[in-house]
Amino acid sequence: YYVDDSEGLGRRFDGVGGLSGGGATSKLLVNYPEQQRNEILDYLFKPNFAASLQILKVEIGGDAQSTDGSEASHMHYPWDLNFNRGYQWWMMKEAKKRNPEIKFYGLPWGFPGWVGGGTQSPYTYPNITTSYISKWILGAKAVHNLTIDYVGIWNERPYDITYILTLRAALDENGLNHVQIVAADGDMQITPDILTHPDLSKAVSIIGKHQPHTDSNIYDLETGKPLWASEDFSQKPDNYGGACWARTINQDYANGFITGQIAWCIINSMYDGLPYYDNGLMRAVEPWSGQYYVAAPIWASAHTTQFTKPGWLYLKHGSGVGNFSQGGSYVTFISPDRNDFTIVIETGTFNHSHCRKVIPPFKVQPQDVTFKLAGSLGNLSSLNAWYTKLTFDGSDSTIFQQRSIQVVNNVISLKLDVDEIWTLTTITTGCKGQHPIPPPSKPFPLPYFDNFDVYPIYSEAYNLVQQSGIYEVTEVDGEHKMVIRQMSLEKPVAWQQSDLLGPTIDIIGNYNWYVTTLINAPINGTSGLFVASRVLSRGLDTKPNSGVYFFIFPSNQTYIVSGNAG
Hints:
Elements: E1 2-4, E2 9-12, E3 15-20, H1 34-45, E4 55-60, E5 64-65, E6 70-71, H2 88-98, E7 103-108, H3 113-116, H4 126-144, E8 150-151, H5 161-173, E9 180-186, H6 191-196, H7 198-203, E10 204-210, H8 218-222, E11 227-233, H9 239-256, E12 258-264, E13 282-286, E14 291-294, H10 296-305, E15 313-315, E16 322-323, E17 329-334, E18 341-346, H11 350-353, E19 367-374, E20 382-389, E21 398-406, E22 411-416, E23 420-425, E24 465-468, E25 471-475, E26 482-486, H12 498-501, E27 505-507, E28 529-533, E29 548-553, E30 558-562
Parallel strand pairs: 1-19, 3-4, 3-12, 4-7, 7-8, 8-9, 9-10, 10-11, 11-12
Antiparallel strand pairs: 2-15, 5-6, 13-14, 15-17, 16-17, 17-18, 18-23, 19-22, 20-21, 20-23, 24-27, 25-26, 28-29, 29-30
Helix pairs in contact: 1-2, 4-5, 9-10
Keywords: Disulfide bond, Glycoprotein, Glycosidase, Hydrolase, Lipid degradation, Lipid metabolism, Signal, Sphingolipid metabolism
EC number: 3.2.1.46
Domain Glycosyl hydrolase family 59 central: 315-430
């Protein structure tokens, strides 16, 4: 297999990243003990330590359920503007603190109801929606000193050409010319419109597809635009997830010329029982104990991210990029000045590396491979190597182990087994970072009490995960002073039907709890409220559902006990 830059270079590498949101997937991370929280953030973002992620994609909160919870908007109402709600600002600042060069990408799932003007579409009044999005980007910079590099349209929902053109114009009018539009964060059906609509082609910088399974087509390539897997992975933090992620990062380019990958979700920090629980590059679900788990997907990321930077170039297919004859793939990156290069190899087998999407079977076998270095990559005597062998039989895996590889007469010879990841590189700064062993797991501490006195106004209470509606800490008259209040005045422009079907919901703890609640419900404070346990569905599946519900209606001083919320 030739590795040679003398015939030119391939596409620009845009980076490997993770997605916080879609929705509330990072919620429990916020109130981890400071030591463990900083350790977790190091594993995700610190350069040359672990995952070293190069892109952080976040949800632009829309007061709407977006998979595992609803995330707060910066504008609950047209007259409202607040850039201290939610935790994505905090997440981005922590990422930037560790890696000042990280790229940020915002994408909405839902929108406050006023944005749709009484409709269930953000496109009905495009000037209103583009102003709403532009203010989020401007606020990120003005309040938090965060530069947003990319913005999307509407997660996994139809795009609208007029809206995209209006968004581009609004960004430019607000001095946000640097912000690149990624479209359409679903499938790649936007490609024909880009090819036939010059103004749309000018407005869209990057084509983003979800779960592309390393695939693109001739029409995608004909646009000449960067192609991204703008949401991918969706696997558990284990060896299967690591093999999936390594294969995806490599074969996205080897098979589909896809130059950016973003994993959903960046971390599993949600309650057990929510949809897609335990999907993530790593796991941190017990802020009360500080326990967390660093898994193979973190190190699968490191095989690429620690030895490249966005802006490096791929080599051409057949000259450093391709698939092995016995299965697996190899991808070569080179720095713009051609002083450094990195080859990443993976041999994930079908049974161990397939991801969320159903794919055709394929075979991978042990094999001997030889790389012939030429062009500016020649004249080396050795390369730094990092090696992972993932096992699935209960034996110990070898994870991100440093080695050295000899180069003899510009030739590298390797014996490859199945389910391996190799990095061969001139870069010398690779590191398998390690913090102390986290504390042991503990059950949620009971009895649980929170009077909300320690929170800033507008923040979300720890351990409470809103599922429909938006609950934030506010100050009121009377003995309680600090309370949580549901802030939505109308149904959102929903991403999931669950937002339109029933009452607002906030959850805490465990499906198996017995619940006792002491409340103060003013007569004019609400038409009704409820506490529930043993509820069958949560997250995007939240709806009038079986469980045990106790309703109180203050205005007429009645209550109902019911087996559903209907």
